[in-house]
Write a structure and sequence with these properties.
Radius of gyration: 22 Å
Bound molecules: flavin mononucleotide, adenosine-5'-diphosphate
CATH class of the largest domain: Alpha Beta
Oligomer: single chain
Enzyme class: transferase
Organism: Virgisporangium ochraceum
Structural class: alpha/beta
CATH superfamily of the largest domain: HUPs
Catalytic activity: riboflavin + ATP = FMN + ADP + H(+); FMN + ATP + H(+) = FAD + diphosphate
Family: Belongs to the ribF family.
Number of strands: 14
GO molecular function: ATP binding; FMN adenylyltransferase activity; riboflavin kinase activity
Helix content: 25-40%
Number of helices: 11
CATH architecture of the largest domain: 3-Layer(aba) Sandwich
């Protein structure tokens, strides 16, 4: 997948493309359907599939201080989008200036002049342009003027609830990581670097890797969770920041499935390989302030089962599969240790059964 940052990075001679636009935080099941449809239509017409997204979250620019909790860090989001078969990801640095672009200006400058859209795929509730004045009807009218088609995909729901990033953030904030996983299509992941804690864990018999995640990462409610853990996770994300941009060169003459196969051979392109960072270990994870020790700082710490190594400074990813319980305050250590033993046994039971929840965590 080609990765562009800013409209200026789009190659001058870029031909026609099928484009979808969105923040796509979480790349949840609704996003997957829209992006999947974009890729399908691109293959049918033999042109590349382009995803346009924004960084930082537009809400932060329009209302400073209102950054929503982040479900997927930028590098992870790009990897997940690449995994859906997208040919190019264009990240627009969302600035106050950009936010002032009118709906018509956005369509003309971005979709027509830069990406040469032949077709634009969006969710039926899509809004765009200054003050979100543009909607699907306006997009269709502008499409007739400028010569691109518009397809609005119905929103994906589970039961009565439409899947949305906001809904998933609220599930995670409430600790319901099981329901979040159902809406995401995989467990919610926190990723970052292992930092030092109070050096108390190993004395209790349970050393815990303390995670420093991104500034706005969506941390589940205080409690204890069964999780899958990836150590040495490859995504080179700086906490709260952007990611490494790889420029790949490809022949652009044929973007059909056949063209891709002859370019790439079977399987994913090398740059996308391992993108999902396989979480192959089990972890019993504590989120909270360690009330037994009157801690103040809210921490995410993972006891990794069947593991013994120094991993300070390494990147890890934690995939939250199931909530086990709330945080408790103990008046002495033996009952805390007994409880952690029980948490570990439950984690093992939940995650080692064949075909268990979150097994294909990716
Ligand atoms: C599975 C698990 C469950 C935990 N549950 C609690 C708890 O209920 N109450 C509490 O005060 N601390 C709990 N802890 C956190 C320990 O207090 C913490 O890991 C310990 O203080 C080590 O901290 P350190 O990494 O800073 O050395 C739990 C830790 C783990 C791994
Ligand atoms: N099974 C394990 N799970 C998590 N961390 C482990 C494990 N085995 C060894 N470690 C190492 O021990 C460190 C945690 O030990 P701990 O006493 O809890 O110290 P700290 O308070 O600095 O987190 C981890 O950061 C990691 O480097």
């Amino acid at each position: 997948m080609l990765r562009w940052r800013g409209l200026d990075s789009v190659p001058g001679g870029w031909g026609r493309s099928v484009v979808t636009i969105g923040v796509f935080d979480g790349v949840h099941r609704g996003h997957q359907q829209i992006i999947g449809h974009t890729v399908k239509r691109a293959r049918e017409t033999g042109v590349p599939a382009v995803v346009m997204t924004f960084d930082p979250h537009p809400a932060e620019v329009v209302r400073p201080g209102s950054h929503p909790a982040v479900l997927t860090e930028p590098g992870r989001k790009a990897d997940l989008i690449a995994g859906l078969g997208v040919d190019a990801l264009c990240v627009i640095p969302f600035t106050l200036d950009f936010s002032k672009l009118s709906a018509e200006g956005f369509v003309h400058d971005v979709l027509v002049d830069t990406l040469h859209a032949s077709l634009v795929v969006v969710g039926e509730n899509f809004r765009f342009g200054h003050k979100a004045a543009g909607d699907v009807d306006l997009l269709r009218r502008l499409g007739r003027t400028f010569g691109f088609g518009v397809e609005a995909a119905p929103l994906v729901s589970g039961g009565d609830t439409v899947f949305s990033s906001t809904y998933i953030r609220s599930l995670i904030a409430a600790g319901d990581v099981g329901a979040a996983a159902a809406a995401l299509g995989r467990p919610h992941r926190l990723e970052g670097v292992v930092v030092r804690g109070d050096q108390r864990g190993r004395q209790l018999g349970f050393p815990t890797a303390n995670l420093m995640s991104g500034q706005y990462a969506a941390v589940p409610a205080d409690g204890v969770y069964a999780a899958r853990v990836a150590i040495g996770h490859p995504t080179p994300t700086r906490p709260g920041a952007g990611f490494a941009w790889t420029e790949e060169r490809r022949e652009r003459s044929d973007w059909s499935d056949e063209g891709r196969r002859s370019r790439e051979g079977p399987g994913p392109a090398p740059a996308d390989a391992g993108a999902s960072g396989s979480a192959d270990r089990m972890g019993a994870v504590s989120v909270g302030t360690n009330p037994t020790f009157s801690g103040r700082e809210r921490r995410v710490e993972a006891f990794i089962l069947d593991f013994d190594a120094d991993i300070y400074g390494e990147r890890i990813a934690i995939d939250f599969v199931e909530r086990l319980r709330e945080q408790r305050t103990y008046t002495s250590l033996p009952p805390l240790v007994e409880q952690i033993n029980d948490d570990v046994a439950r984690t093992r039971g939940l995650l080692s059964e064949p075909g268990t929840v979150g097994e294909s965590a990716g």
